[in-house]
Each structure stands twice: as structure tokens, then as C-alpha cells.
Design brief:
The complex is a heterodimer of chains A (281) and B (318). Chain A has 15 helices and no strands. Chain A is an all-alpha fold. In chain B, helix 11 runs antiparallel to helix 14. Classes of the chains: A mainly alpha (281), B mainly alpha (318). Chain B: Pfam families: BPD_transp_1.
Chain lengths: 281, 318
Amino acid sequence: MIRTHPGRRADGRRTALHSVVMISITAVIAVPLYYIVISTFKTPIDMAKSPLGLPGSWTFDNYVNVFRTSPVVRSFINTLIVTVVGVAFQVLIGSMAAYGMILRKGRLTAAVGTVLMVAFCIPMQSTLIPLYRMEASLNLVNTLQGLILIYLGSAIFCYFLIVGYMRKLPMSLLEAARIDGAGPFRIYWQIVLPLIRPILTTVVVFQTLSTWNDFMWPNVLLSSTENRTIVLQVYNAVGQFSTDWPSFMTVTVIALVPVFVFFMFCQKWIVSGLVAGSVKQ
Amino acid sequence: MTKVDVPPSTDAVQAVARTGARRPGRRAAGRNWAPTAFLLPIAAVFVVLYAVPLAETIYYSFTDFNGFSTDVNLVGLANYRTIFTDPSLLTGLGFTLAFALATTLLITMLAIPLAVVLNKKFFGRSLVRSIFFFVGVPSQVILGLVWQYIFSPLNSGALNSVLAKFGMDPVSWLADPQIARGCVVFVAVWAGVGWHAMLYLAYLQAIPADLYEQSQVDGASGRQQFFHITLPQLVPAVVVSSFLLITGGLRVYELPFAMTKGGPGYATNTITQSIILRGLAQSDYGVGSALAVLFTVACLAVILVQLRLAGIVSKRFA
């Protein structure tokens, strides 16, 4: 007990040391973010002369230039459509399947569970070539619908996250609703879905992020400028603004702002998705 | 930062076992047709997006199909032999494996101490957490492209401009095979450390505090606590995180593609890039599919090892 006082002072010193060390390391980690943002306010010459310095004179021309010459708004809307529709269907299909699995235990559900587990272990790359051919034969190449169709595959991942949570629901509640005369669809829509809202939020946040960020499928499927997603747009901006680095960085900032805002609001669900997903993967 | 419940890592294993067991009480919960109806959409997803394409991949891998000709011949293992003789594919295979191993080791070694520090109270902690976490959130393509500019070989490249301040000559970072590989791994570690530290942090917060209090009473030092309490308690998290890193590493495509397009030469070529290039761009379906089959087998092998490990770990540490 006598040692409490000096001990606390040592603790304080250690805390201060932690702060100094960690904030310096973080500053280094964040340099690329600073570099992206600061470059958007420079002229190409200014950026070449001092890549990491502050702009000689702040300019907003890059933003004007990018919004005029690059379809960033269009690709932003495309990404929004694909992500919203895609994730909505993934979660719907996944949660329906999870509900179907807890409704009854039997040979059928046991078989389905095993089959889904196997499917879950198959990486997207293994089916890439036939899926591209299927899209081509359905005339879905270079369409947003085609991209959304591919993203439905993630419904299986959603199913695994949701079913674990659903198994912990009090079955007596569903039973009571059934006795009151509610059909399976009504129980699913009005009782089960509201009850599993925490896991639904987690799944929606996590899937939104991975659908929004995907590059492989848009790169393989989408060819025309007006269909590009935002990540594909950034990729194409390298060629479009070949020597105009500040304009490229501006496209990057425009693409990162929505992700940053989303991150600010949904950080805790990203973590819970990370943990829940890690257990199932 | 909210606390996150950490479910036991053997859930997946138990789930398989459990689906076999019947619970008579639940039988009455639904009418007979209802479960089937609810399972129909996912069954359609499975058949259309998984089963049929996988069967096709396996079939193509034994043929000389080129996407156009109707004259498809079975060629046995010829496509598989091509993979092990083609230098571009072999380098891609090698880099993918090296990338998976290097990122797994480096991120694990850095993320655990980072998580331990981020779990302590200090000024600016939430800002530090958020920045470490955020760099892992945007698309790897966007990050890779930005880093490509930072690694620019010109004097005006951000990194070379820093070197110049110290009187050093500019380095062609992404033009030398070995340096380029190192740069790709470095960026992957930069982006992944915070992400995985958040995972470890969630597990750290689930360690009962009285374990530390007891050891403090017994006079254990901070170092002793780390090695005798924190690390053993984190073993399940290590299994999970390293598994994510290995499977993610094997699937790597976007980051090297954005930074180097697989170059210089084939130095940073990846399996996924080869599947896309061979199978789609060059219409060599046979070789692309054979590569995809090998890739699937490798991923399944890793998953089996993981399930085994998870089983052992849960027995030993639960």
C-alpha cells in the first residue's frame, strides 16, 4: 500500500511514453493518407517539386477538372446500386436459409448444412472462368445486373453468420406466435428479422464494405465507361491522368471519402463482423 | 470501442456435428413445406454459382477447350503439366505462396504487440486505433495505386524525395524483382496490421481481468504476464487470424496487380492473376481451369489443417 503513490507516478510516465511512441508511429502510418489529400491541392509542378510538402498555393482546380472530365458521379451511383441491391439480396437469401434451417431438424436440413459448408470453402477464383461464360451466355457481361448476380454468391457467407445467431433465439417465442396462428412467413418477417437485428447490422456493414471495395469482378465483367464502379474508375484514372498526378489523387480522395464516412459511423460493426466472420471462415 | 463477444472458435465444427442431431421439440415449429421454401433461394445460389461452375472448371481442366471451338478434346493431365513447366505460372505460384507466408508471419508478429498496446489506456488511443484500422478498410486496389506513386522511381516520387533529403540516390522500387516483392509485402503488412490488431483486441478484451489481478498479487512482471497469460489466452485468436491471413494471402490479386501488374517480368505475378489472364484474356480455358483446380485443392487443404488446429486448440485451452 505504501508503494501506491510512486507506482502511480511510474504508471503516468509509462502512459505518456505510450502516447508519444504510438502517436509517432501512427503519424508514419498515416503519411500515405496525408500524401493523397495534400496532393489534390497542388499543381502537377508543385507536386513534382515537393511531394510531401504543403502546397505553394492551394488550388481547387483538380476537383473542378476531375468532376468535369471523369464520370466519378456516375460510377459512384453505379457502385451504390450494385452494393445496395446486392447486399439486400445476400442478406435476404442468407437469413431465409438460416430460418429454414432452424425451423426443422431433419435429413434435408442436415444435408443442406453440409453442402453449404463445402460451398463456403470454395474460393471465388475456382469458379471464375465458368461464371464468366455463364454471364456471357446470358448477355449479362458489362451490366450491373450481371455483377449483382455474381455477388449473390456471398449469401452463403451471410447464412453462416446469421444461423449461429438465430440458433440462440428463444424458440418458445416462435412457438407462441405459431400457436397464435401466424404462418412461417409472417413469423420470419415480423418476429425473426427484428429479433436478429444486431447480426443483420453486422452482416450488412461487413458485406457493404466488401461489395463496395471489390475490384476483381468489375474488372472482369465491366468494359464500358458508364458502367464502371468507383474502384474501377480509380484504376482507370491512372491511364486517364497519366502525368497529371494531382488529378489522379483527387479521384482517389473522391473515392475514399464515402468509405471514410462509412468507417466513422460503422467502425464497431466492422469489428464485430471481423470477429464473427473470423470464427466462421 | 465496444466490446465484442468472442464466440468459441469451434462453432463451425460443432455446427456440422449438431445439424445431424434431432431435436424433437422443434419438429412442430414449422409446417412441412416451409423449411424447403425458405431454403430454395440458397439452393439456387449454390447450384448456379457454386456446384455447376465448379464441375465445369474440373471438366475444362482436362480438356483443350478454348472458349470458341466446338471440337473439345480430353487431354488428360497435359494442362497440369503445363503449369509446372511454364515459368510465368511457376513464378506466380511461388510469389503467391511467399506472399501468403510472409504477410502471415509479419502481420501476426506485429499485430499482437500492437493490440496489447492499444488495449492499454493512453492519450490519443482512439485516434491511433482508428488510423491503424482505417488504412485496412479501403479497396486494396486504391491503396496499391497510391503506393505505386509513392514508390515512383523518379526523383519526384514521395519515397525517393525523402531519400534525397538524406543525400541518397533514387531507387527504382518496383523495377527490381526482389525489391518489388518486398514492397508489395510491405504495403500488405501496412494495410493489414491494424485490421488484425482489431481482431486480437476483441479477443484481448475477453480475457478475464482477475487473471491479471491474481498474477499481480503473485508479483508477476509485465513481461511475465504477457508470456504466461496474454499469449496463451490469445492462441485461439492466433489460429483464427493466421488462417484468415493464409487463405487471404493465397487469394491475393488486387494489391500486386494495382502496384506492379505482376511485374517486373513475372516477379509479383499471382495465381489469381494467372487464372484471369490465361483463362479469360487468352482463352486458354484448360490451363486456367487446371490452375483453378490446384488452387481449390490448396485452399481446402489449408481449411482442413485449420479445423484440426482449432479442434486441438479448443481442447488444450478451453
